[in-house]
Each structure stands twice: as structure tokens, then as C-alpha cells.
Records
---
Amino acid sequence: MIEKYFTKHDIKKQFDVESVSDICFNDIEEEKLRYFILEGGEKETAILQQFKRLKEDKKQVATPERTEVWENGWSENYEEFKATLDLSSLTPKYFSVNECRYNQEFVKGDGYAFNDMLQRIIRKHIFTKYMAEFSNIYEFGCGTAFNLVDLAKIYPDKSLYGFDLTYASGKIIKLIKEHFGYNIEGGQFDFTKPDESIKIERNSCIYTFGALEQTYDMWSPFLDFIIARKPALCIHLEPIEEFYDEDNILDYLALEFHKKRHYLKGFYTRLKELERDGVIEIIEQRRLFYGSCNDETSGFIVWRVK
């Protein structure tokens, strides 16, 4: 295995920026972000495991039974949070993994959930670089509201809104507000059947992080919903099938898994069409090259309505 450390330089390279806020690393020391790139027999074993997983996996998103899965999952987080009032209990259970993919390699953290730490750092960079100027920030598909908690710590004076398909999510947000006083409001929302009564305030940013992926090809109602409300900025951190390189074996496996699970399909292509038609402007799009062992969750897109 090849030893590496994840540092601010890596964030700068991923986003092509000259500086990164200290906030990104304020709860993680860089020298502890050690990981190892799998090589040789270990890499071959990891690739073989992904071929087997691809063959055996039967789950598909955007199905009625998946709604129950998310409701049960967030309810589990809610009960733990209710009992402990420990904000760390809001971290989704599936984040606690030690192995993931990074820069088209399989990597393993040095005895900790490297995938979770890497995601937190990247999300905080997005918060500090792209959301500072907005008074109102909306997350759709907010789950356990752990992103909104990080946002509230960084921007206590901003108005934050979290929407999710599940009832458990709203209960979590209510409990967060009651016990920590964060300026967060919550509500229920279905990407495929948006609540047209929801208003987006002026000077607002809308974002989705790993949530729109669950809609497969049924994202059009949500896209129409956003365009009609003309927020100042829209940000997505989602698996984007168009970003994969099919000539790379890890990318090929991830794309096949993406297709089999029915993750987000055609969304980026539609944004490009809307830009061509003069409806929106894509400000930035980039591949951040990280995700689970199964697929890459890090297609980054920033756009606005013209």
C-alpha cells in the first residue's frame, strides 16, 4: 500500500482554487488524515469484490420501498439524537466506512472513517466558498440535517431551510432548533411532486448533496420548481454519469453500478441543453474524484437561472 495524507493542497487541486478556509479543517488535524492506496493483490481483491457486488446487488432507488428504508434510517438517527442530544449522532450510518475510492484508486483510511472525513471537508469548502453571500440557504433532501448543522455553526445569522421526503427529518430539525437554537426550519418535500406552495426567499442558494441521485430520471418536476423560483445560485454534489471515464476500470465498475441502482440519469445533459437554450448559466462543473467503493458521489455543478 502507498501511504498518503489528505491536505489543503488536495482541496485546492480538486476545486482549482488558491486558498481554502481554515474552517474546512477546524475539527480535523491534517496530519491525522492518513490513508493508503491499495495496490497489487489488495487492489485486485477490491476490484473482484466490486464485480461480485455488481452482480449480486438487487437494490434500486426511486421505488416505493426505498421511501420506507429512508424513513426507518432517519428514525434511527432521530431516536439516538433524542436520547443523547449529541449532534454527532446525526451522521448517517452508511458514512462510517474506512474504505472508499479517491482519484480513481481504492483507498483505505488509517483506522478511521476516511470517507466521512473527506466528505465533511469538501462540504465545508463548498459552504465557505460558495454560500457566504446568501441570506437564505435551502437544502432539498436534507436527511438527518447534518449539513444544516455544519452550516448553522459557520453562519449563525443566516436563515436555513431543510426539506426531505421523510417525517423523521422534520422531527430531527425541530429537536435541533429546540435544544441548540440554530436558525433552521424544516418541511416535507418530494422531488417528483414538489409542493408548489413553498416559496424561495430573495438572495437564496439552493443545494442538493447526494439526494437528487435517488430520483433516477424523475427529476424534471424539481428542476422546473427551481427554475420557476429563480434562486440566486444552485449547487449540486451528486453522482453524475456523464463524468465517468469508461476506459478506466474503476470508473467502468462505478458507472455500471450507477446504472444498475438507477441513480441520477440525464440531469447534467439536461442542464447543458437549458444552458444552450439560454434558460440557465452553468457557472462551474467539475469531477471531484471521490466516493464510496461502489460509485463516485462527487459530481459538482454550480448554476443559476438567467
Note: The mean pLDDT is 94.
---
Amino acid sequence: MPSLDEHARSQAILAALSASGRVAVNDLAQRLAVSTVTIRKDLEALERRAALRRVRGGAVAAPVLDEGAFETRLLVRRAEKVGIARAVAPLVQDGDVIALDSSTTCHHLAHELLARRSLVVITNSMPTATLFSERSDATVLIPGGSVRRSARSVVGVIGDVLSGRGWIDKGFVGAHAVSAQRGLLDMTPDEAQVKQYLTAHCRQVFALADSSKLGSFSLHSVAPPSRITALYTDSGADPAAVAELRAAGVAVHRVDVPEEHR
């Protein structure tokens, strides 16, 4: 097996953890063709990022205190999220001013936009801000606030930062749940507050949510149906939930995900 770099090993470890809930150092070392010392260092690094919890001989999934660690969520329904991101990307043109929240689907969208020229990107996602700053010519703005380690996002009151500075052309936001009655919802009040401020300053608001989010339960309102320009989801979305959203005035686009990408 070819030697993997640290990032690739981390992704492999998180995938194995997602599948079984527990991983063993010796098994990982054999599977990834590295020493047990290397695996222990990888596990230590992932634990510092709240992606797992180390135990004797290996690691277990981190306790779910909120929506989950960013790296773990990147792997969940990845094919659907990438498909949605690719369908949404043509909405963004060179020179646009856009907002991206800290959702993993928006992070996948960021990867699709690196070739756009002269973007202004407003985001509370640390990984997304880093991606644009290192791999594009975009101007990146991060509103100030406190860092949520597991989500790798910046939260806090950002209304004063955006107020009076004009409109954001297009805002792209994920959601913990989507409701025909209440629109976009999030599980944590801090993330919901940031998304409320972002969407309030956007001319157009595009919701990116895989089919598991439609009709799911969540607590805090982000944007009502009337503020959603369009919702992009995958083809697995429940037809009844889609019909309910459309009846509430939300334009819903279902994206086909090729079988080979699942």
C-alpha cells in the first residue's frame, strides 16, 4: 500500500471510526502501513480537534455535544454534498460578493469556487477562510467572535460588522433541519445567530441541505421560508417534504448524485 500523508491518514481514521465507532492502534497501523507511533500521533492530533476521544489501545467517537466535529461531518453524506455544491457553483460569477456559513456543504462549495476571480468571501468558517486565502485570489472577511473548536467556526454578534456596508450578492447556508413552516434551523444558538445576521444582509439566500435534513428536528430558527431564494438538495429528498416546501413558496432543486459517487 502506498504511504499516505497525515491528512489522508486522518481521513482514513475518521472513516473507519464512522463505520464502527471504535478503532484500534494496531489495526490502523497495519491497514495504513505505518508504525503504531505514527498512528498514536495521528490520534492525538485528531483528539485535539475534538474529532475523536482516545482510549486505551485506540480511540472512540467523540461525544456528540452539538452537530459534531467538522472533519467527521465532512465524511457524512459526502457524495450528496459534493453533488449539491457542484450544482450550485455556476450561480457564482467572477467579482461576486458572497457569504458562506460554516456548514460542510458550503466548504465543498468553496472548493468548486477557487478558480473564480476577484471574489469577496464573507465566512465564519475557519477551514473555508483558509482554503480561499491559500488557493485563490479572493478577498476573505471573517467577522470577529469566539471560536467553536469542534465546528471550527467563529460565532458571536456580527451585525455591526456588516451593517451599513452594502448588500452581499449571494448567501449560501447549510442547515441542521429544513421545515416548510419555519424554514432553516440550526441546533446551536450561536451558529443560528451568525446565520441570521449573514442572511439578513444577503440579496439572495441559497440553502444547501442534503435530503436527510428535510423534515428533521432542530431548535433554532435561521431564516423563514420567505427569505429562501432556493433550496438545493439531493434526489433522495422525500417527495412529500419537497411538495410541502414548494407549497410554502420555496423553490426546490433536487440534484442527481451519480451512483459511482455514492
Note: The longest helix spans residues 6-20.
